[in-house]
Amino acid sequence: MAKRIAIGVIGCGFFAQNHLNAWADLKAAGADLVAVCDTDPVRARAAAEKFGVPRWYTDAETMFAKEQLGLVDIATQMRGHLPLVKLALGHGVPTIVQKPFGQDIGEVREMLAASAATNLFLAVHENFRYQRPLLKVAETIASGAIGTPNWARISFRTGYDIYTGQPYLAREQRFVLIDLGVHVLDIARVLLGEVEHLTAELQRRNPIAAGEDTATMLLRHTSGAVSVVECTYSSRRLPDSFPETLVEVEGDRGAIASRVGSKVEVTSNGVLQAFDEDPVVHPWAERPWHVAQDSVLTTCRHMLEAVQAGRPAATSAADNFKTFALVEAAYEAAGKVRPVSG
Ligand SMILES: NC(=O)c1ccc[n+]([C@@H]2O[C@H](COP(=O)([O-])OP(=O)(O)OC[C@H]3O[C@@H](n4cnc5c(N)ncnc54)[C@H](O)[C@@H]3O)[C@@H](O)[C@H]2O)c1
């Protein structure tokens, strides 16, 4: 019999719909959605009605005072993360917060310290590593099929219009690295381990964006492996791979390549095998977002099981701090280069 966890969701906007669907799907596994909160009463009420949630709030403080939550899931934009995380931990509630963890490394340090001081569960909803093709890549590396991985390319390149669903992105001064870079850099850590140093080139290729919309990074991992990590919202390439992250990993006995359409090709000791890793399109999901939507469900399941078992999440505050540190390092490294003398 699964331990029941009373869950509150803060922020009922664009992406939170996926969280709400995931928690609803996880009812049999022990998730009880008991409250939702949004400063916009129309959104809070609509979420409560749609998902049959008994109570809705427009103020998080009131929600924490009135509810006995076993877990709170914060799905607001990054500006709200620090105050909401401190509020949640101050009420003794285990907490999940959407990526990007904070606005800068100082905020992330503050949240990490608050979780350490209270000894409470704090995790970041970092879902890309839970996308089905990427789980297959990680499993293949762990199986030893390609030997020791020593080179990789991790690439999220799209021209998909993300500005309609998330208009605030066009106004961000620090844009693609903090929005998408957190995901691809996290994948680099998952596949090749921690990073010793990196370089980065940032570009603003679409004038609609206030900040950089393209990042190209070169990482040296502590294992000696090297990876090229890229993300852009300004690619004109067809077929458009949104929202897939395509990876290539090479080892001393083989290689892995993921292709558009969630295909994963594994070469091991000179033998090529192809796998179809297209995720389930859940009844509430739609193509092409299903790749992300399925990973939200997998992420939420992982979080629920961790809270039920009283253990930290794989994407704990301490773990995500390391990913966020790479984002900050990339912003600092950008443009610091050795000029070529002619
Ligand atoms: N992991 C992913 O794949 C993925 C994809 C898209 C967006 N996101 C992330 O999800 C987060 C939310 O993005 P979005 O596009 O849904 O934003 P959004 O603006 O559509 O939704 C945020 C909601 O939070 C509410 N809100 C803000 N402050 C609040 C507060 N203090 N208390 C209660 N409610 C509050 C707003 O009224 C709004 O309804 C962002 O951090 C974004 O980066 C993640």
Report on the structure:
- The protein folds into 2 domains: 144 residues, Rossmann fold; 147 residues, Dihydrodipicolinate Reductase, domain 2, CATH 3.30.360.10.
- The strands form 2 sheets. An 8-stranded mixed β-sheet has the order 8-9-10-7-11-12-13-14.
- The mean pLDDT is 97.
- It is α/β, with parallel strands linked by helices.
- Nicotinamide-adenine-dinucleotide binds next to loops.
List keywords for this structure.
single chain; about 350 residues; alpha/beta; Rossmann fold; Dihydrodipicolinate Reductase, domain 2; 2 domains; 8-stranded mixed beta sheet; 6-stranded parallel beta sheet; 9 helices; 14 strands; about 25% strand; globular; binds nicotinamide-adenine-dinucleotide
- Assess the beta-strand content as a share of residues: 15-25%
| CATH superfamily placement of the largest domain | Dihydrodipicolinate Reductase, domain 2
Largest sheet: 8 strands, mixed
The ligands found in this model are: nicotinamide-adenine-dinucleotide
How many domain regions?
2
- Reported by name, the CATH topology of the largest domain is Dihydrodipicolinate Reductase, domain 2
The sequence of SSEs as H and E is EHEHEHEHEHEHEHEEEEEEEHH
- Helix proportion: 25-40%
Number of helices: 9
Shape from CA axes? globular
- Which blocks of ≥5 consecutive residues have pLDDT under 50? none
User: Whole-number radius of gyration?
Assistant: 20 Å
DSSP summary, beta strand count: 14
Please, what is the average pLDDT?
Answer: 97
Which structural class do the helices and strands define?
alpha/beta
Distance between the termini: 71 Å
Name of the CATH architecture of the largest domain? 2-Layer Sandwich
What's the arrangement of strands in the largest beta sheet? 8-9-10-7-11-12-13-14
CATH C-level label of the largest domain: Alpha Beta
